[in-house]
Design goal:
This protein has 368 residues and is of the alpha+beta class. Among the domains are: 136 residues, 2-Layer Sandwich (Gyrase A, domain 2), CATH 3.30.1360; 87 residues, Alpha-Beta Plaits (2-Layer Sandwich), CATH 3.30.70.1400. Helices cover 20% and strands 34% of the residues. Helix 2 crosses helix 7.
């Protein structure tokens, strides 16, 4: 939201969304499409063919200079020194308590140049946090206004994008990126996404967004490509157990509790929150984010209580129907003694206890 005017921000594709009949909603300070043809149709398009998302609301922060890596190493728990040029890393900005300022992706363009892609609602907060905690000779710049972002996701994403670029996408591996051109537009193409499917995220100058959006739809529609909104993005990411900031991860739960210990590299040296995470790892966590499926009829929603008998043992963070699996699924924090696969407990839905059980995640995994 624009702090000066109190108005929701709009991406360069706002009018294109309206022409396509999208239903617009407020999200993270932006006016964004929640659905076009319908969430179920869009979800299936991504799983079976391809979907095109406008994610230009996401923020981008650049760090440059000889101290750029040192700054990232201090700010994040993952080890950015392991990155080669052209690689992407999932990570976080952590508080001194080992909780989340935000979850982010780190792009290495050069030894002295990195990008952080951050959540839309957190861009200003993240930028201020980074500037406040800089420990090195690095220049930090919010480049979000200079960038738009499209996500092309699904099993036919490569086939569609290959029609529009000379970049060899066959050699671009998962969590890698390359700078090149799509329909003659300079851009950054990364093989990343938030859906659990293969696909690409394309960073482009804002003035070219409508042109590229239309070109992708024209190239992809004959093979089943559909424009997709936030509704399908949420059902897709839940099936893939991809955390949503503000629901599944926040400044109240640590990285270890969020079942993201794999992004914590304690051996790399000091970083914000390391001491708290070392202590928590030694003592053991008392709660953990788990995936569950409903055994009885009912849909788990955020903030619903999780109980065992009359005892409260946790809280739902995300939940809903899984279109791919035909089940109702969810995520929630539970006391660790209830976190093992197969453990049963109840979700309190409108005053009624409905059975659920812990299952392996991700709920959905694409065939390679």
């Amino acid at each position: 939201m624009n702090a000066a005017t109190g108005l929701l921000k709009r991406t360069p594709l706002f009018e294109a969304h309206r022409r396509l009949g999208a239903r617009m909603v407020a999200f993270g300070g932006w006016e964004m499409p929640v659905q076009y043809a319908g969430i179920l149709d869009e979800h299936r398009a991504v799983r079976e063919h391809a979907g095109l998302f406008d994610v230009s609301h996401m923020g981008e922060i650049e760090l440059r200079g000889s101290g750029a890596l040192e700054a990232i190493q201090c700010l994040t728990p993952n080890d950015a020194s392991r990155l080669s040029v052209g690689e992407v890393q999932y990570s976080a900005l952590t508080t001194p308590d080992g909780t989340f300022v935000d979850d982010i992706t780190v792009y290495k363009f050069a030894d002295d140049r990195y990008w952080l892609t951050v959540n839309a609602a957190n861009t200003e907060k993240d930028f201020a946090w980074i500037r406040e905690h800089l420990v090195s000779n690095a220049e930090v710049k919010d480049i979000s206004d200079d960038m738009a972002l499209l996500a092309l996701q699904g099993p036919r994403a490569q086939e569609i994008l290959e029609k529009l670029t000379s970049v060899d996408l066959r050699t671009l591996r998962y969590f890698r990126f390359v700078e090149g051109q799509v329909i003659g537009i300079d851009c950054c193409i990364s093989r990343t996404g938030y859906t659990g499917e293969d696909g690409f995220e394309i960073y482009i100058p804002p003035q070219h967004t409508v042109t590229l959006w239309n070109a992708l739809l024209e190239a992809g529609t004959p093979v089943g490509l559909q424009p997709c909104g936030l509704g399908a993005r949420d059902t897709l990411r839940l099936e893939a157990k991809m955390a949503l900031y503000g629901q599944d991860i926040d400044d109240r739960h640590t990285v270890l509790e969020a079942d993201l210990g794999w992004i914590v590299k304690l051996e790399k040296g000091e970083f914000i929150g390391r001491e708290a995470l070392v202590r928590q790892k030694a003592n053991g966590i008392s709660r953990k984010l788990v995936g569950f499926e409903m055994c009885g009829r009912g849909i788990a929603r955020p903030h619903y209580a999780i109980v065992s008998g009359s005892q409260s043992i946790g809280e739902v963070t995300s939940g809903g129907p899984s279109p791919s699996l035909g089940k109702n699924i969810g995520l929630g924090y539970v006391a660790t003694q209830y976190a093992a696969i197969g453990t049963e407990f109840d979700i309190v839905i409108r005053g009624q206890s409905v059975a659920a059980r812990v299952v392996r995640t991700p709920f959905y995994k694409r065939a390679h």
